[in-house]
Protein backbone atom coordinates (compact mmCIF):
# COMPACT_ATOMS: atom_id res chain seq x y z
CA UNK A 1 0.00 0.00 0.00
CA UNK A 2 1.19 3.49 -0.84
CA UNK A 3 -0.18 6.67 0.66
CA UNK A 4 0.57 10.28 -0.17
CA UNK A 5 -0.85 13.63 0.88
CA UNK A 6 -0.74 16.29 -1.79
CA UNK A 7 -2.14 19.72 -2.60
CA UNK A 8 -4.59 19.92 -5.50
CA UNK A 9 -3.44 22.50 -8.03
CA UNK A 10 -6.44 23.01 -10.30
CA UNK A 11 -7.90 26.51 -10.66
CA UNK A 12 -11.49 25.36 -10.12
CA UNK A 13 -10.63 22.47 -7.85
CA UNK A 14 -11.69 18.91 -8.50
CA UNK A 15 -15.02 19.83 -10.11
CA UNK A 16 -17.00 17.78 -12.64
CA UNK A 17 -14.63 17.70 -15.63
CA UNK A 18 -11.37 16.99 -13.77
CA UNK A 19 -13.18 14.56 -11.46
CA UNK A 20 -14.40 12.66 -14.50
CA UNK A 21 -10.86 12.57 -15.88
CA UNK A 22 -9.57 11.35 -12.49
CA UNK A 23 -12.17 8.54 -12.49
CA UNK A 24 -11.38 7.48 -16.07
CA UNK A 25 -7.68 7.26 -15.24
CA UNK A 26 -8.17 5.52 -11.88
CA UNK A 27 -10.38 2.88 -13.50
CA UNK A 28 -7.48 1.84 -15.76
CA UNK A 29 -5.60 0.53 -12.71
CA UNK A 30 -6.23 -2.75 -10.92
CA UNK A 31 -5.32 -1.29 -7.54
CA UNK A 32 -7.96 -0.05 -5.13
CA UNK A 33 -7.84 3.73 -4.78
CA UNK A 34 -9.15 5.83 -1.93
CA UNK A 35 -9.23 9.62 -1.84
CA UNK A 36 -9.41 11.22 1.60
CA UNK A 37 -10.12 14.81 2.63
CA UNK A 38 -9.86 15.35 6.37
CA UNK A 39 -11.36 12.19 7.89
CA UNK A 40 -13.70 11.44 4.97
CA UNK A 41 -12.49 8.79 2.49
CA UNK A 42 -14.21 7.75 -0.73
CA UNK A 43 -13.66 5.23 -3.51
CA UNK A 44 -11.34 6.85 -6.05
CA UNK A 45 -13.21 5.10 -8.86
CA UNK A 46 -16.62 6.59 -7.95
CA UNK A 47 -17.63 9.92 -9.47
CA UNK A 48 -20.29 10.50 -6.81
CA UNK A 49 -17.86 9.77 -4.01
CA UNK A 50 -15.20 12.04 -5.45
CA UNK A 51 -17.65 14.88 -6.08
CA UNK A 52 -18.95 14.57 -2.50
CA UNK A 53 -15.52 15.62 -1.22
CA UNK A 54 -15.88 19.05 -2.90
CA UNK A 55 -12.11 19.47 -3.24
CA UNK A 56 -11.12 23.08 -3.97
CA UNK A 57 -7.90 24.44 -5.42
CA UNK A 58 -5.02 24.43 -2.93
CA UNK A 59 -6.74 21.89 -0.63
CA UNK A 60 -4.88 18.85 0.67
CA UNK A 61 -6.09 15.33 -0.03
CA UNK A 62 -4.57 11.94 0.65
CA UNK A 63 -4.41 9.17 -1.92
CA UNK A 64 -4.33 5.62 -0.55
CA UNK A 65 -3.62 3.03 -3.21
CA UNK A 66 -3.25 -0.71 -2.74
CA UNK A 67 -2.53 -3.28 -5.43
CA UNK A 68 -0.14 -4.56 -8.04
CA UNK A 69 0.15 -1.27 -9.96
CA UNK A 70 -0.06 1.06 -6.96
CA UNK A 71 3.14 3.01 -7.64
CA UNK A 72 2.29 3.79 -11.26
CA UNK A 73 -1.26 4.71 -10.23
CA UNK A 74 0.03 7.09 -7.56
CA UNK A 75 2.49 8.77 -9.94
CA UNK A 76 -0.14 9.19 -12.66
CA UNK A 77 -2.88 10.53 -10.39
CA UNK A 78 -0.47 12.83 -8.56
CA UNK A 79 0.59 14.41 -11.87
CA UNK A 80 -3.05 14.94 -12.80
CA UNK A 81 -3.91 16.60 -9.49
CA UNK A 82 -0.84 18.77 -9.14
CA UNK A 83 0.07 19.57 -12.74
CA UNK A 84 -3.11 18.87 -14.68
CA UNK A 85 -1.28 16.22 -16.71
CA UNK A 86 -2.32 12.59 -17.01
List the helices and strands and how they pair.
Elements: E1 2-7, H1 16-26, E2 32-37, E3 40-43, H2 47-52, E4 60-66, H3 70-83
Antiparallel strand pairs: 1-4, 2-3, 2-4
Overview of this protein structure:
The protein is an alpha+beta fold and 86 residues long. It has one domain (2-83): Histidine-containing Protein, Chain: A (2-Layer Sandwich). The chain is 36% helix and 27% strand. It has 3 helices and 4 strands; from the N terminus they run E-H-E-E-H-E-H. The chain has helices at residues 16-26, 47-52, 70-83; strands at residues 2-7, 32-37, 40-43, 60-66. It has a 4-stranded antiparallel sheet. Strand 2 (32-37) and strand 3 (40-43) form a beta hairpin. The longest helix is centred in the C-terminal third of the chain and has 14 residues, at 70-83. The two termini are 21 Å apart.
Gist?
By secondary structure, the chain is α+β, with helices and mostly antiparallel strands.
In terms of structural class, how would the helical and strand content be classed?
alpha+beta
CATH superfamily heading: HPr-like
Helix content range of the residues, please? 25-40%
Strand order of the largest sheet: 1-4-2-3
H/E element sequence:
EHEEHEH
Radius of gyration: 11 Å
Chain-averaged pLDDT: 95
CATH fold type: Histidine-containing Protein, Chain: A
Instruction: Indicate the proportion of strand residues.
Output: 25-35%
Total count of strands: 4
Number of helices: 3
Amino acid sequence: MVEKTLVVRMPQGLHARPATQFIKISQTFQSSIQVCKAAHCVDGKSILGLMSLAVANEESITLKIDGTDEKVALETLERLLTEGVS
